[in-house]
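Appendix B, example 12.
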Amino acid sequence: MIFVSEAIQTNISGTVNIADLAVKYRVSRMVMMSVTNARHPENAMEYSKRVAEMYVQSSYCRLKRDKGETDMFIVRLGE
C-alpha cells in the first residue's frame, strides 16, 4: 500500500530541502538517487520521484545561469 502523503513528504519535500541546503552551504556536489520507474511513472511514489528529479534539474539550471558553485546529479538505479 502506498501512502501518497508519505511519498510527497519524503521524495518531494525531502529533495527540496536537501537541494536548497546544498546550494545555501555551497556544497560542491549533490547526488540524487532515483529509480528507473520515475521515467514513466504509474503511481504516487513514482510520480513523486519524478517531480523531485524535475526540481533538481531546474535547480541545477538556475545555479548554472547564476554561476552557482554546486553541481547536481541524478542517478537512476535499475531493477
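The mean pLDDT is 91. The helical segments are 4-24, 44-65.
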